[in-house]
Amino acid sequence: MIFCRHLNQFDVVNDADLDKILCYPNPLSQECSKRLEEVKSLGIKAIFNYGSIKIGKLSVIGKGHAGIVTLAYHNLYGYVALKIRRIDSKRDSLRQEALIMKLAEDVNGIPRVYDYTDNFIVREYIDGYILRDYISNNIDSQRLRILLISLIELFYKLDIRGIDVEEIRNPLKQIVVRCDDPRNVYIIDLESARIRKNSNNLPRVLSFILNGKIGDKYVYEIIDLGYNHRKTLLLYATMYKRGSNEERREMANRIIDVILGQ
């Protein structure tokens, strides 16, 4: 585990408050004692009060419709991210998300999964800023071009594996830039991912490039994409959707050339 930022010493969530994390948002649930034993059996030694998202007086690093994510300590892997299924989640298990992540574990940009159950996923913790915060602080065109190319490569590889991530239409909260490096991007939430024969993540990234905004500017304005270049990207997106795996690689390369201004 590598921490890229200077972080203060973490406070451990005490036993009295663990139910507020493990059984969010109903710490009085009868399931809490079972979950405490379950998380211990996974090798979790401590859960930390850390992150930018508040649950009452406690802090976590992520919160969504199906679960919350905390920083934790594992007896083998050290610092890890622990995803916890919410008590009120409509999903009855986190296993599908974990299995999809393991299916793509050879892809640079997918956190490694160490263990999982219906209620928990123990995975690699990716230290960095979510895309929205990163690009707000690093808005120069060159770094943004590098980052967009990294996203194109990542989601092309997921497309080839048939892993479809609909929520990537707006990647600002789904992507973490590790260690301030635009070449080192990770998708941290595959909650909505599905296995599909014709996965089309890369065109969604192009939609973000052509329609997304950073502050009061469109992404394409920051990287100086003129009308003809944008029209070419739309054509390549259509060809990509219809193409074989080999043709998709060629279209991905052409898209990268356009982003680079070639």
UniProtKB/TrEMBL annotation:
SUPFAM superfamilies, A to Z: Protein kinase-like (PK-like)
Keyword entries, A-Z: Kinase, Transferase
Protein kinase domain boundaries: 55-262
Gene3D superfamilies, sorted: Transferase(Phosphotransferase) domain 1
One GO MF term attached to the UniProt entry: ATP binding
Entry-linked PROSITE patterns: PROTEIN_KINASE_DOM (PS50011)
Protein name: Ser/Thr protein kinase
Species annotation: Ignisphaera aggregans (strain DSM 17230 / JCM 13409 / AQ1.S1)
